[in-house]
C-alpha cells in the first residue's frame, strides 16, 4: 500500500493537533510534514500565551512528545509557504495540504491619528515582549511614559495591561529575554486605562483572567460602581449568560475594594468609543465619545495606546481569502473558492474559524479537519512524491530548514541561558542566532 503524505502549514496548536490526529486516526500508512515560517514550533503558545501563564504553555510538552515519538512526522521550521514553496508546489508533492497558519495581522480602529508613534497593535506589543524574532528589541520604550491605554475588553487586552504593571521580579521568573525584562524595569508607566466600547456585561475576557489582575500586588484595579448599574440590554445579557454573571460579581468585588493606595493603577472605562488620537508625531491623547450618548466626549492623555480589537488572517498567494472575516473560506474544513471545493486543500485553527477560543478549542477544530482529510484520501491511491523530493526542492533553493533536532538544539541553548541566570529558560530572540545553533546541530559528530 502506498504511503499517504500530508503537508501541514503552521505548527501552532491547530497544526500540531492536526498532525497528531492525522497520525492517530489514519488507518493506512501516513507521513506528515509540518512547516513553519519560524525556526521554532508552537505558534502563539510560544509567542502569544502570556509568559506568566506557564500552565497553558506546558501544552508544548505533549506536542513535543508527539513530534518525538511519532514515526513519519517531521517538523520543517524556517520554511515560509507562499515564499519558499508555493501552494501549487505543495499540492503537487502531497496528497493533501492543511493550512493552519493562524491570524498574524490585526484589526485597526480606522480613526484619525492611528499612524502616530505610540499607537500600536497589541499584537506587536505581545510579540515584542515574547521575544518574537520579527520584532526589534527596541520596538517599545516604556521609560518616560506615564499612562498607557489599552483599547478592547478581551483576554489579550488584559494580558497586555497586566504585563505593563508586573513587577520586574515576577518577569524574571518567566522565559522572556533579559533586554525585555530591563525595558519593563525602566518603565515609568503607573496607570493603565482599559477602554471598552460597550458596558461591563459585554466584556469578553474571562473571570479567571480578571481575577488574575486583582492578584497583582503592586496594582489597584479601579471599577467605577456607577458603571455596574446596568441598562436593560446588559441585564438581559446577564440573564442569558452565566459567565457574564460571574464576571459581573467579580467586577462588583473590585468596585467595593476600590483603591488600596498602591503604586500603580489599572482603571476600566466602559461605554466609550475611541474617535481620534492626538499628537504631532507621537501620541499624546485619545478622544473618546460615550457610546450610548455620542454627543458627550472626553480626552484622555496617553503616552502609549495599544489597540486590542482582534487578530486577523493574512491572504496567502493562491489561497482564497475572505477579507471581511480575515479567514480562508471553507466547508467542512475543505477550502472553497466561491462554490467550488479546492481539491486537497483544507484549513484548521484561527485561519479557518477566526481568532477565537483557547488552545484546546483548536483540538476539536483540528479533529473536524482531519475527519474531512481522511474521508477524502481513503478513496484514492497516494499520488504524493517523497520526503526526499521535497527536501531536494528546499535544498535547491537554499532554504535553511530547521528540523526537529535542530529546534531541540535551540531549545537546549535557551535552557542553558536560563540556568546561567537562575531561570528555567530564557528565549532566544534573534533569528540568526537560532539559525546558527540549528546549523551547528546539523553537523555530524564525526565531521
Ligand atoms: C496574546 C495571546 C494570548 C493568548 N493566551 C492564551 C491563553 O492564555 N490560554 C489559551 O488557551 N489560549 C490563549 N491564546 C489563544 C491561542 O494562542 C490560540 O487559540 C492558538 O494559538 C491558535 O492556534 P493556531 O494554530 O490556529 O494559530 P497560531 O498559534 O498563530 O499558529 C500559526 C503558525 O503558523 C505559522 N505560519 C504563519 N504563516 C506561515 C507561512 N506562510 N508558512 C509557514 N508557517 C506559517 C506561524 O509562524 C505560527 O507558528 C492566546 C492568543 C493570543 C494572541
Quaternary structure classification: single chain
Low-pLDDT runs: none
Distance between the termini: 38 Å
Q: What's the total count of β strands?
A: 18
The CATH first-level class of the largest domain comes to: Alpha Beta
Task: Write a structural description.
By secondary structure, the chain is of the alpha/beta class. It folds into two domains: about 5-105 and about 310-400, Rossmann fold, CATH 3.40.50.720; about 110-310, FAD/NAD(P)-binding domain, CATH 3.50.50. Helix content is about 35%, strand content about 20%. The strands form four sheets. A seven-stranded mixed β-sheet has the order 3-2-1-4-18-17-16, with helices on both faces. Strand 17 (about 335) and strand 18 (about 340-345) form a beta hairpin. Helix 1 packs across helix 14 and helix 7 packs parallel to helix 10.
Amino acid at each position: 500500500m502506498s504511503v499517504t503524505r500530508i503537508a501541514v502549514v503552521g505548527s501552532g496548536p491547530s497544526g500540531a493537533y492536526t498532525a497528531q490526529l492525522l497520525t492517530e486516526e489514519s488507518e493506512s500508512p501516513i507521513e506528515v510534514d509540518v512547516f513553519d515560517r519560524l525556526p521554532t514550533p508552537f505558534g502563539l503558545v510560544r509567542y502569544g500565551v502570556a509568559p506568566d501563564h506557564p500552565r497553558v504553555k506546558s501544552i508544548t510538552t505533549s506536542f513535543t512528545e508527539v513530534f518525538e515519538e511519532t514515526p513519519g512526522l517531521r517538523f520543517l521550521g524556517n520554511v515560509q509557504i507562499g515564499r519558499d514553496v508555493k501552494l501549487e508546489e505543495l499540492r503537487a508533492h502531497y496528497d493533501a495540504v492543511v493550512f493552519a497558519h493562524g491570524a498574524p495581522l490585526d484589526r485597526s480602529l480606522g480613526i484619525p491619528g492611528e499612524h502616530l508613534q505610540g499607537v500600536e497593535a497589541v499584537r506587536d506589543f505581545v510579540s515584542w515582549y515574547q521575544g518574537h524574532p520579527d520584532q526589534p528589541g527596541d520596538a517599545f520604550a516604556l521609560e518616560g511614559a506615564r499612562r498607557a491605554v489599552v483599547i478592547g475588553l478581551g483576554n489579550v487586552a488584559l494580558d497586555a495591561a497586566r504585563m505593563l504593571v508586573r513587577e520586574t521580579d515576577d518577569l524574571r521568573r518567566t522565559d522572556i529575554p533579559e533586554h525585555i525584562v530591563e525595558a519593563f524595569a525602566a518603565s515609568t508607566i503607573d496607570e493603565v486605562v482599559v477602554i471598552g466600547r460597550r458596558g461591563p456585561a459585554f466584556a469578553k475576557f474571562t473571570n479567571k483572567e480578571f481575577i488574575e489582575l486583582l492578584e497583582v500586588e503592586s496594582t489597584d484595579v479601579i471599577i467605577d460602581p456607577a458603571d455596574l448599574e446596568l441598562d436593560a440590554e446588559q441585564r438581559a445579557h446577564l440573564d442569558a449568560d452565566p459567565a457574564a454573571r460571574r464576571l459581573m460579581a467579580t467586577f462588583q468585588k473590585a468596585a467595593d475594594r476600590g483603591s488600596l493606595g498602591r503604586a500603580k493603577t489599572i482603571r476600566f472605562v466602559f461605554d466609550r468609543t475611541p474617535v481620534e488620537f492626538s499628537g504631532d508625531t507621537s501620541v499624546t491623547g485619545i478622544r473618546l465619545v460615550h457610546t450610548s450618548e455620542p454627543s458627550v466626549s472626553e480626552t484622555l492623555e496617553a503616552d502609549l495606546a495599544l489597540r486590542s480589537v482582534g487578530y486577523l488572517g493574512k491572504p496567502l498567494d493562491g489561497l482564497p481569502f475572505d477579507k471581511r472575516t480575515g479567514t480562508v473560506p471553507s466547508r467542512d474544513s475543505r477550502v472553497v473558492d466561491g462554490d467550488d471545493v479546492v481539491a486537497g486543500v483544507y484549513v484548521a485553527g484561527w485561519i479557518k474559524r477566526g481568532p477565537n477560543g483557547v488552545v484546546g478549542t483548536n483540538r476539536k477544530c483540528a479533529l473536524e479537519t482531519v475527519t474531512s482529510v481522511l474521508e477524502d484520501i481513503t478513496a484514492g491511491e497516494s499520488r504524493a512524491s517523497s520526503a526526499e523530493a521535497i527536501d531536494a526542492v528546499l535544498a535547491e533553493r537554499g532554504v535553511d530548514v530547521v528540523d526537529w533536532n535542530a529546534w531541540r538544539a535551540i531549545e537546549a541553548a535557551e535552557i542553558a541561558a536560563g540556568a546561567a541566570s537562575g531561570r528555567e529558560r530564557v528565549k532566544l530572540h534573534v533569528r540568526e542566532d537560532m539559525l546558527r545553533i540549528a546549523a551547528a546541530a546539523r553537523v555530524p559528530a564525526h565531521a
